[in-house]
Amino acid sequence: MMTLSPITARRLQVQGFTSVDDAWLAEIAPWLRWSPALCASFAAIGTATASPGILLALAGTALLGAVLPFHPFDLIYNYGIRFAVHKRPLPPNGVPRRFACGMAAVWLTTTALLFQNGAANAGYALGILFVLVAALVSTTDICIPSLMFQFMRWLSGGKAITR
């Protein structure tokens, strides 16, 4: 049986994965980095090529991740990869992670519009920052937008999501 470190468990809780039992979470925890890693990769390509088209397509994908209980990239794992690696499916995304996808949609749209309107330096700056934030969650499970969600929830008098 696989176990999850307390640090990783806490980072995933911050993202809203609180209704998943420990064994399931330990089994699929590395695969929860799949969608952020793909987002970071496509954003890096879109930024490097200053491509509004790539960035807007990725923004649309992120928007779907905000309104659906899963990110579209999760489907690649859930309906393909998981059968090859013999793992359980990814659980639904919690509100903090969907909030992060919503932020990503706005951020990517803004970056695309900057490139489209000739503000390449600002586009590169936002694009590089986005790639760094997405790379952080895809390598360490630290999701800055989910942390922001938890902080705003705390500020408004709600309790942060705990397990």
State the major sheet: none
Total strands: the figure is 0
The helicity comes to over 70%
Poorly predicted regions are none
What's the number of helices?
A: 8
What is the typical, i.e. mean, pLDDT?
94
Q: What is the molecular shape?
A: globular
Q: Tell me the series of helices and strands, N- to C-terminal.
A: HHHHHHHH
Can you put this structure into words, describing what you see?
The protein is an all-alpha fold and 163 residues long. It has one domain (17-155). The protein has helices at residues 6-14, 22-28, 34-48, 52-67, 72-85, 95-116, 120-140, 144-155. Helix 3 runs antiparallel to helix 4, helix 4 packs antiparallel against helix 6 (95-116) and helix 6 (95-116) packs antiparallel against helix 7 (120-140). The chain starts with 5 loop residues before the first helix and ends in an 8-residue tail after the last helix. The mean pLDDT is 94.
